[in-house]
Amino acid sequence: MSRIGRLPVEIATGVQVDVSRSGVRVKGPRGELSRTFSPQVSIRKEDNRVIVTRDSGAPARRALHGTTRAVIANMVRGVSQGFEVVLGIEGVGYRAELEGKSLTLHVGYSHPVKIDPPAGLAFEVDQKTRQIKVLGYDKELVGQIAANIRQVRPPEPYKGKGIRYLGEKVRRKAGKAGKV
User: Fold this and answer.
1) Which of 22, 28, 115, 127 is deepest in the core (most CB within 10 A)?
2) Host H or E run for residue 51
3) CA 28 to chain centre
4) Position 177 pLDDT exceeds 80
5) Do the beta carbons of residue 51 and residue 65 sit within 8 Å?
6) In the chain, which ranges are E strands?
7) Is 32 helix (H, G, I), strand (E, B) or coil?
8) Is 54 exposed, middle or buried (0-12, 13-18, 19+ CB in 10 A)?
9) What pLDDT does 180 receive?
């Protein structure tokens, strides 16, 4: 069996999980998520856990087994604790600010770039450290919005200016050699 898939998903206190033929619905203090899964894996709730099993050892089903379990675990963790991605801004004059719930980026363009958060997401901006936090309970959505923000001005290889994930290493290039 899959090493990830065979582990049961522990349901945190205050979280309700409903398993049906159509999919899984998870409700917690931060929000509610529902998702349909492939019928090739079976999902059942026992006691205070969710167990994912498969009936075949085919490679596609083995992969689907671990993925299904990981997605359900992320749903349970998201509605109980939430997820956060931190982005850093590098560059002279580059900054971010909040206008209401919207994020406004000033990153070297002739105009500011405005990003509105979808439902269930929030932004936090720290002006001192020039960091942007993307907060939410849906891991996929948090990651996608963080990637969209980074895509506005990805880090460039010569000076390292741009928006990057916290802890991301940017490979630097030497640039032109001066005249001798």
Assistant:
1) 28
2) strand 49-54
3) 18
4) no
5) no
6) 9-10, 16-20, 23-27, 32-35, 41-46, 49-54, 83-90, 95-99, 102-106, 113-115, 121-126, 131-136, 162-165
7) strand
8) buried
9) 58
- CA–chain centroid gap for 150, Å, is 13
Task: Estimate to the nearest angstrom the gap between the alpha carbon of 162 and the chain centroid.
Answer: 20
Q: Which helix (H) or strand (E) holds 134?
A: strand 131-136
Rounded distance, CA 35 to CA 51, Å? 16
Q: Which of 47, 80, 113 is the last residue of a domain?
A: 80
The pair of structure tokens assigned to 119 is 């439902």
**Is the C-alpha dihedral spanning 55, 59, 61, 66 positive or negative?**
positive
Q: Which of 32, 55, 80 is the last residue of a domain?
A: 80
Q: Cα(first)–Cα(last) distance of the chain, in Å?
A: 64
Structure tokens at 122: 């929030």
Closest CA to 144 of 121, 175, 111: 121
Nearest-angstrom CA–CA distance, 140 and 146 = 10
Establish if 177 belongs to a structural domain. no
Paired tokens of 104 = 């406004």
pTM for this one?
0.89
SS3 60: helix
For the chain, the domain total comes to 2
For the segment 28-49, the average pLDDT, to the nearest whole number, is 93
For 83-97, what is the mean pLDDT? Answer: 95
In which element (H, E) is residue 86 found? strand 83-90
